[in-house]
Amino acid sequence: MLRMLALARPRGMRFALGVLAGAVATASGVGLLALAAWLIATAAQHPAVTALSVAVVLTRALGVTRGVARYLERLVTHDAALRTLADVRDRVYARLAETEPVRRFRSGDLVARLVSDTDATQDLLVRGLTPPLSALVVGAGTVALSTALLTQGGLLLAGGLLLAGLAVPLLAARAGRGPGRRAAAARAELATALVDTLHGAPDLLAYGATDAAVARVAAADAALTRVARRDATILGLGAGATALVAGLTLWGSLLLGVAAVQGGRLDPVPLAVLVLTALAAFEIVAPLPAAAARLGAISASSRRLFDVLDTPPQVRPASAEPVPAAPADLRIRGLRARYGDGPDVLRGIDIDIPAGAHVAVLGPSGAGKSTLAAILFRFHDAEAGSVRLGGADLLRRSPDAVRAAVSGVPQDPHVFDSTLRENLRLARPGAGDDDLRGVLHRVRLDGLDLDDPVGPRGHRLSGGMRQRLALARALLTDPALLVLDEPTAHLDADTRDAVLDDLLTAAGGRSTLLVTHDLAGCSRMDHLYVVADGRVLEHGTPADLREAGGWFARAADTALGRSTPSGTALSSTTATP
After folding, report:
1. 278: left (phi over 0), alpha (psi -120 to 50) or beta
2. Side-by-side strand order, sheet with 527-532
3. What is the crossing angle of helices 463-476 and 433-442, to 10°?
4. Can you tell me whether residue 475 is helix, strand or coil?
5. Which of 111, 267, 356, 517 pairs with 506 at a CA distance of 20 to 30 A?
6. What angle do CA 124, 8, 174 make, to 5 degrees?
């Protein structure tokens, strides 16, 4: 929570003004009741009207001041809290974009972290920061006033305020610590269950698992409801304890005041002021137990929020120097990569892609092909080696600088629930409609209208159309290198061949790297690299590899339905023609 408070440091003056305005509003409320007590008690003695005129004016002034100060406190503190909340969201989104930790969290859980847990910043600043500081300032002044009227009354009020403003909130915070942690976890579980059920609805229906998924959502909702009920109980007990302490303090002040009046140590008018000041004083600490009870939930939310912000980067920070955008040679030397502490996925591979050449990297599943694509997209870092594009080492450039020169079609391109135009403009926000229609023509999507909605995850488009749309976005960036990572995965044979032909035709003379386990389209490639177990087994032109009789030749024979010689274990994943 201290780290969360530190996020508000740039707006410290705004919060200080909010605390000051809150203190003025609370002090005006206490002063209004104390002055009203003096006015009523004095008026009962039938003094001259002029003796009451100043008090009447002050009463009106305090009433106006209280409302204005309370409005200013709400305005200033909420403005500062919402601006801080916007900064926190920016930091979270920026960290997600820089480190790509999205896959480390479940989708529903990540939504809960970005929404509910981030909102905890606002709760802490508005309810957990301003009221306690205002209570400290005004409480001290109120105790000083009561002590000036009657020493015993001031000490009793100080004790009551300490009980209601410190002891009760501490007990509420302790009691709310467990429910707060469970509430954050239950909220995340409910969000995850909902997202999984909605996204997986077709499969759940197909396998008759809908009832189980709905039951999981209901169970998560019931768990959150139980935690909320426990939280409400704690809030109610805190409010009741504060009211009890306030009542006892009020009766104690009244008894002490009456005894002082009877003993001649206090006049009747100050007695009324003392008692009603004690009554008004507990307005100062009334919000504190509820705020303290929320500290457990805020603390749990802050931990979950900083889990995202503290996620270590998958790509080391590097220079933001630009990468050559014109067609350039790509030279990969000694590239090694791994995931975490696991074994090397890439074990020192060497690959050359001349400017304007079309090169394919082939191999069975698990060979390290997608890891190679992730490194080129700068979604993953290498352990050793170099990747030079036109002389610039991509491993020593920032992800943004690399992606300005390297683009393409990832294995599972995301299509946003918007229009075709907006999906294309992700790549080039300033592109005009003529540019967009031109690139659609190149990928053979010119039959679609730019205003056509594509639906959630592009469900209104076929699989081949989504791949073409992803390629259109890549072409809009005018990259020096185009990377196609399994662009025909999950497509039937006819659609696969048509889509691959369109992708390679649209790529034209641009340097292109095709990463695939499929043999379709290999005859159109200038050079092939066969990768297995993180190493390059063979490379050459398609004709050379057929003549060599290695992995590629055996896989091609299998794809054509020919008998497969012994020793072709590497061809476990092949394609159909």
Report:
1. alpha
2. 406-409, 481-485, 511-515, 358-362, 527-532, 535-540
3. 130
4. helix
5. 517
6. 25
Cβ atoms of 487 and 467 within 8 Å: the answer is: yes
What pLDDT digit, counting tens, does each position of 128-150 carry?
A: 777 888 888 888 989 998 899 88
List the end-to-end C-alpha distance of the chain, in Å, as a whole number: 60
- Distance of CA 355 to CAs 228, 330, 359, 530, Å? 62, 7, 11, 20
The domain 2-309 belongs to what CATH superfamily?
ABC transporter type 1, transmembrane domain (1.20.1560.10)
SS3 556: helix
**List of residues 6+ apart from 512 with CB closer than 8 A:** 357, 358, 359, 481, 482, 483, 484, 504
What single-letter amino acid sits at 4? M
* Of the candidates 516, 524, 526, the residue with the CA atom closest to the CA atom of residue 555: 516
367-426 per-position pLDDT tens digit: 888 888 888 888 888 888 999 988 888 888 888 888 888 888 777 788 888 898 898 888
Give Cβ neighbours of residue 412 (< 8 Å, ≥ 6 apart).
489
Could you tell me the residue ranges of all domains in the chain?
2-309, 330-413+481-572
Residues sharing a CB contact under 8 Å with residue 454, sequence separation 6 or more, in sequence order: 415, 416, 417, 418, 419, 420, 423, 460, 461, 469
> In the chain, which residues have pLDDT < 70?
97-108, 317, 325-326, 489-492, 494-495, 559-577
Q: Token digits for 120? A: 């905890």
Q: Which of 268, 270, 274, 283 shows the shortest CA–CA distance to 253?
A: 274
- Residue 320's alpha-carbon distances to 316, 417, 479, in angstroms, are 12, 32, 17
- Contact criterion met (CB below 8 Å) for 285 and 363: no
Which CATH code, of 3.20.140.10, 3.40.50.300, 3.30.70.100, 3.90.226.10, is assigned to 330-413+481-572? 3.40.50.300
CB 157 within 8 A of CB 278: yes
Query: Residue 391 burial by CB count (10 A; 0-12/13-18/19+): exposed, middle or buried?
Result: exposed
The identity of residue 437, as a single letter, is R
